[in-house]
Amino acid sequence: MTAAAEPNVASAAALGAALHRPARSLWRDAWYTFTRDRLAVTGLVVLAVMVLGALFGPYLWNQPTSTIDFTKALQGPSFTHPFGTDDLGRDLLARVLFGGRVSLAVGITAVVLAMTLGTAVGALAGYFGRLDNPLMRLTDLFLSLPVLPVLLVLVYLFREALQRALGSQIGIFVMIVGVIGILNWMPVARLVRASFLSLKQREFVEAARCVGAPDGRIIFRHILPNALSPVLVAATIGVGGAIIAESTLSFLGLGFPTDTPTLGRLLFDAVNYLDFAPHWAIFPGLAIFLIVLAINFIGDGLRDALDPRRKI
Amino acid sequence: MLVAAACGQATPAPTPTGGAGASATTAPAARGQGGELKIIYWQAPTILNPHQAGGTKDNDASRLIVEPLASWGPDGKPVAILAAEVPTLANGGVSKDLTTVTWKLKTGVKWSDGSAFTADDVAFMFTYRCNADTAATTASACKSTASVTAKDPNTVVVTYKQPNANFYEWGVGTQDSIIQKAQFNDCVGAKAKDCPANLKPIGTGPYKLVEFKPGDVVSYAMNDNFRDPSKPFFKTVTIKGGGDAEGAARAVCQTGEADYGWNLQIPLAVLQPMLSAAASKCQFPSSYNALERITVNFANPDPALGEKRSEPDTKHPFLSDLNVRRALAMSANRAAVAEQLYGKPGGEAYCNVIVFPRSKNTDSLDVCKYDVAAAEKVLQDNGWVKGTDGVRAKDGVKLVINYQTSTNAARQKTQEILKADWEKIGFKVNITNSSATTFFTNTAPDGYAKFYADLEEFASSQDPDPTSFLEQYICEEANAKANNWNKNNIGRYCDPAFDAIIKSLKAETDQAKRDQLAIQANDYLVKNVAVISLVNRTAPTPNGFSKGLKGVKQSPFDSSLWDVMDWTK
Amino acid sequence: MGRFIARRLLIAIPTLIAISFVMYAILALAPIDPLAQFALDPRVPPEVRENVKRSLGLDQPWPIRYVKWLTSVAQGNFGISFMTHAPVADLIWQRLPNTLAVVGIAYVIGLFIALPAGIISAIRRNSIVDHVISSFAYIGFSVPTFFTGILLIIIFSIKLGWFTFLYDSRLQVRDFETLVAQIKQSIMPITVLALFDAAVLTRYVRASMLENLPLDYVRTAHAKGLGERFVVLGHVLRNSLIPVVTLVALGVPAVFGGAIVTEQIFHVPGIGELLVTSIGTGDTPVVAAVVLLFAVLVVAFNLIADILYAVLDPRIKYA
Fold this sequence. Notes:
The structure holds three protein chains of three kinds. Chain A is mainly alpha-helical. Chain A is built from twelve helices and no strands.
């Protein structure tokens, strides 16, 4: 077995390298690489601005989000209403700021949930041969269930209970995030499992196993960083999807109450007015696009930064 | 069914002329001159047998093929279709004791396959739909009918079990369309469900079926055997289904891909630019008869009650207080809802409960006038005091309202408009909505029938006679777990004084007095805010048709396509 | 490999039964009444509605209905639709060609855009070309299809009047003229879907390429003096296509599932439209059949993806 001889060489080389350099953690390395990436930093700045805007914007631009005034309906952008007004004469800047807050929270939390679930299932299935079949059949099950009835049932079973346990707003938030997360982890699980299947046969994993690394360490330190790339792509694509999915839920009457503006919902409401009041759709649409753009830049940067092969 | 008199009873029915709306067409039109009539239904027809219909769309799509003895005209009076004339007390067609109705049929009418239409076919319709195993959706008239028999090939006698003031219950309207005996003879009872004829019925109507893709498209061709040699004008008809109301409106008003669009109930702000644009291709005829209203829950929907939740024997903590209901009604901006969301094509602001006859007494009532300050005063004067959070309360009961409805752009905007005013005067309003299909499921937890909320909004249309509509506010109709939430009194309103009015209304046979009693009942409900009416909407549905289309006479009591043979271009 | 496939096929049967059971339970629990349409119609009183429900067999407990349904499906009979009273299989066959003609073609076009775009984007990483392609991709998946659909209708149907947006399923392509008509009526929905598919796939292709570019074997190939073009096309592409091929295979069931929003906007009577309306009207036999069909495809294509993996990537072994 040639493989048996190699680990010693590899670990000896690693040992030698470690002796000659001051210790640097994976994360500090990653941060170093990340900050060298202009686009990633731009993305981070844009996202930070949007998060700050969503958090503090409503205090700075303190127009009400829900005062109805038909005399001001469907006005284009102006000084008093920089983003214009909607069909009930409500200020759209205020609604976009408030909506951004909800949408960012929903989008990011739901994607983190979906990715965590998917990665966990995929990693377990790919690494432990015994678990592969049952977990992948579970994935098949989730992939084939019809989304709409599942949503209806989930909402009927949990909406009231959650609202009572966590309060009306947080209850709905947890439910929506949970629903989007539960319905979107499957492709990630497939991707991660595929990477794991391929990676666990590689030399460096065998090497790690030979030096007696426990399964947990192999999964987290050796395989996962190499399998992260597709997860990050899926995650960055997913945020936009989750923001839109939330609006679809509202449309079905399963999301936030209609008087809570969210970016997806603003866009959805505006779509039928596109011919004569395009400003209504443009600003929330632009906001979603910027969020997706920023998160993708950050995701790309992270991918490079966390790629073990790109170190040094 | 209910004992109810049709409008046509008091005033002698007009001597029926030939076909429906024959006088409406101005230009003399010849059969088959027009090309294709393109109709769009955003809910696609799925079956063409009206007795197995799953919704209005199916009734309408079948109406081009099969026809009833008479239709409900725009004024709520029957118009003869397959009947030679409409039977009345005056012409002797209706017996003095109101138990038998004798229908004379037009002679020489043929089915589209060339065979003769006879009284046997009419009598067969009774056998067919009144067989419980047929499970016809049109079976409601069976309860009060003893028999329908063919006296001779051109005469049908309908016998009711009891004197029936609503003597047109059998025979008038799309629900009573006549199917061919020869075709459906083997489809009675349990065999009715998967009978192939359901998808390709033969009829006497102006069109016959060419192709039917359920849930997608129906194509029709002119029926060469149609009884009126000058009709129909259009050679072929297509009903395309699917999409949504906005898309259908675009197809009729903007691209002109369709000549007629069914039920284009979309917010006025979207519709108005389509209508007023120079290039607009559409118009909306409007006749109002569908009441958009807020039903008030008189029972207690508190989840803590468990099984007893919203049961009729519980009492709502604050909506049982007339002052609170009055404050809600007085601060409901009906005009804004009607003018900003519905407009002329969609409906008019309305404060009454019944549409026919229309009460004038309510115009002066304070509960029908929008006055936020007065509404606030009612609460203030009656001990409902504002707390630190701005929500009024009395004896520890807070005015926190859950207001639910079905998912629909106009309804969600209505919710927001009303909520804004109600929160001004010290209510806290939470609004929710659920998709129409679940909202209108009687056993759904957030459906209209269980009513686990304080207020809810929906609409329904009314018969020419208001009795059945008014009956949904009597005690015995109250929805409850015991009747599987299958009754009509959704608000669980119960008032012996009101029940007494309805009792005398049902016993009365003189039409003038009936109208008076109906108005009295209407005024009683409005004064006591048993329900908050908002908009009298277009009925049967707000349909848009292309500007070139002529001869359309919409009837709020019958199918949108009842007069399709008279349409020209 | 043969044993692996045989075993997976055997496991597929209980998997499908489990899926169908969970699905049936969900459908039974979801509070949807097939007669909700008539809820407020005074001419269809509650007792009539209850009678109709009884005739549809809805008065029986759902586990019994499930067993009955499963037995008849096992005999190849998918039952009768509640709404149209026609055999469910007929309805599906009627819809499938429309879905394939729109969603299927869009998927293929999306793929043909994504492959070159993703490859170029990865090779010319961080160049202007890469940024342009990536930006298009970001727009592609941050703008929802309901938005692009309406936008296209407003521009091309209403303002320019070039295309119709009511899809006519009766049109049969027989000659050049009907072909043009078919293209005219399906070009907008295909564009909407293809843009979305292309955007997502481009990102995956690009990521997969980037994954392989810095690997040892590429360095070796370069060191051997092979040309850039040969290295990329001959070595990198082959390896980076492995995950892409499986991704594409896994996306196929979704093609058969249809595209709900786009089908609705453009009135394409496809499977997605059928599923949504059937769910809305509580037409359980249709929903159950479509979901089962979808589940079969998911299970089958997961198996195909796994086989492709093993065939294309010699490092993967299935025990």
